[in-house]
């Protein structure tokens, strides 16, 4: 429930993070516009971004490796800045900044950790797909499903055992792969249960905000009324602004729901005092 608590106690901070997220998205869009040129503009005009077609978007980026690498780097840095803000708010609330966000060694360190974990995840995914394809070729769909489950189980175990790497690296001011692995020894099931609940809350937030956005758009006259802004009605303008705010806040709320529990889990496993950002901030001031 840590993500809900932070959202309730720091709504202004969440809004500020939404603004930073918007800035990061604009930077990535500018990189893609420069690197891909007319192809990206045509992709946007056809509604590629709104449709959420990851395969089409990935194919577009694959046409320009420099643009892909820059977008990946900006995305990792943006995620690292936001997760650092969450960890800072929970673990070191006395450190100030723009809404507890900074761009320094902690963020660079987390970016390196995220890239490392991303690489490990890609290797695990490749192994799962390789084993599944081999099993399907020799034994059919049933054997492939069993093989996929058999390979996915240790992959999930590795992911849970490495779940404390990012908060511990932030707290210790150094990359802590080995110590984080030791910290989670014998704690697989509690951490796995926490991750499952965090994902459930993630989905709940997505569903709730999606329903709210749908209701707002419907009351304003539907999607066509918002899309045609040549003669905007007051309701359509309000719905457009509300939809924009929802689209900016939804990813931030989801990131908070996913990453905030890891900071508290690290505190508990490390034996630190429970998180209470508002009280800690008041005492430090």
UniProtKB/TrEMBL annotation:
Entry keywords, A to Z: Membrane, Transmembrane, Transmembrane helix
Segments crossing the lipid bilayer: 12-36, 67-90, 111-136, 142-160, 191-217, 237-260
Protein name: Glycerophosphoryl diester phosphodiesterase membrane domain-containing protein
Native source species: Phenylobacterium hankyongense
């Amino acid at each position: 429930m840590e993500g809900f608590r932070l959202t309730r106690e720091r709504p202004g901070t969440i809004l500020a993070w939404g603004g930073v997220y918007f800035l990061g998205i604009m930077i990535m869009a500018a990189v893609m516009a420069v690197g891909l040129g007319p192809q990206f503009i045509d992709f946007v005009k056809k509604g590629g971004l709104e449709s959420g077609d990851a395969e089409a978007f990935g194919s577009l980026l694959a046409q320009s490796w420099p643009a892909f690498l820059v977008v990946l780097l900006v995305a990792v840095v943006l995620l690292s800045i936001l997760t650092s803000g969450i960890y800072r708010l929970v673990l070191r609330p006395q450190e100030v900044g723009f809404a507890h966000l900074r761009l320094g060694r902690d963020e660079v360190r987390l970016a390196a950790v995220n890239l490392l974990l991303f690489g490990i995840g890609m290797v695990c995914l490749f192994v799962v797909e390789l084993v599944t394809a081999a099993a399907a070729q020799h034994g059919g769909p049933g054997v492939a499903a069993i093989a996929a489950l058999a390979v996915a189980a240790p992959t999930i175990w590795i992911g849970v055992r490495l779940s404390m790497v990012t908060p511990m690296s932030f707290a210790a001011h150094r990359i802590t792969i080995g110590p984080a692995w030791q910290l989670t020894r014998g704690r697989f099931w509690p951490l796995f249960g926490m991750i499952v609940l965090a994902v459930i809350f993630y989905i709940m937030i997505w569903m709730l905000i999606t329903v709210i956005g749908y209701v707002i758009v419907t009351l304003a006259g539907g999607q066509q009324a918002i899309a045609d802004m040549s003669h905007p009605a007051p309701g359509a303008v309000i719905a457009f602004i509300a939809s924009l705010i929802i689209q900016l806040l939804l990813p931030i709320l989801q990131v908070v729901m996913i990453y905030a529990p890891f900071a508290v889990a690290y505190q508990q496993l490390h034996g630190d005092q429970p998180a209470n950002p508002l009280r800690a901030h008041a005492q430090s001031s």
